[in-house]
Design a protein that fits this description.
220 residues, alpha+beta, 48% helix
């Protein structure tokens, strides 16, 4: 089953599409971050949501309006914004397929990174290549990245795999496995990146999953 189905793509597109010639100053990653922020903080006021998203007041107002029009949120004039049942369902669909972890310290390489874990996507390394994966992540806004995969046995690999690993690489793999042992499953794709940012995390996830879907499309 593909990660992103047609209904999900259509929904995100409806939220970020230009209307009356005006292109909104938010993208699909902002939408997912907004839903997750509302889930954590609800009920949440518009001004707090604005600060969490890093958007202007006008953009935040437009985003909330579109979420409400699609029945993804409900608004209580006193308490604030809360997720609707549809909003919860959409977010659940997404979070079952991707996990976002903040401020992951990798002492071996002296990183304080963000991390995304994407279910059953380790094959993407072989499908499009580790260099193209890195390029996609950097183009998404990361200054640097470290990509790992989880084997059938639950071990961490850091492609491109070599048979003559340095002690530092072995130590780094063990550190990653220990830090993520409660979160990873076989065949997961693991991406560490700096700077640590939840917005950037969602942008990376969407970028890589769209890349996976595009490479699944038959060629004419």
């Amino acid at each position: 089953m593909p990660f992103i189905n047609v209904e999900f793509v259509t929904l995100l597109g409806q939220i970020v599409t230009p209307k009356k010639g005006n292109k909104p100053n938010f993208d699909e990653a902002h939408v997912l971050l907004a839903l997750e922020t509302i889930r954590k903080e609800q009920p949440i006021g518009r001004h707090l949501l604005m600060r969490k998203l890093g958007l202007s007041e006008a953009s935040t107002r437009t985003l909330i309006k579109r979420l409400r029009e699609l029945d993804l949120v409900n608004i209580d004039k006193v308490a604030g914004i809360i997720l609707s049942e549809k909003g919860k369902s959409v977010l659940k669909y997404f979070t079952e397929k991707a996990t976002v972890l903040e401020n992951m310290e990798l002492r071996t390489i002296n990183w304080n990174a963000g991390c995304v874990i994407m279910r059953n996507l380790s094959h993407l390394v072989d499908k499009i290549g580790i260099l193209q994966l890195r390029d996609l992540i950097i183009k998404s806004g990361a200054s640097k990245t470290l990509i790992g995969t989880v084997t059938e046995e639950g071990s961490i690999e850091l492609p491109p795999k070599t048979f003559d690993e340095s002690d530092e690489v072995k130590k780094l793999k063990e550190e990653i496995k220990e830090k993520l042992k409660e979160s990873i499953q076989p065949h997961d794709l693991v991406v560490f990146f700096e700077p640590s940012s939840n917005y950037l995390a969602y942008k990376i996830i969407l970028t890589l999953y769209y890349a996976n879907e595009q490479n699944d499309m038959p060629t004419s």
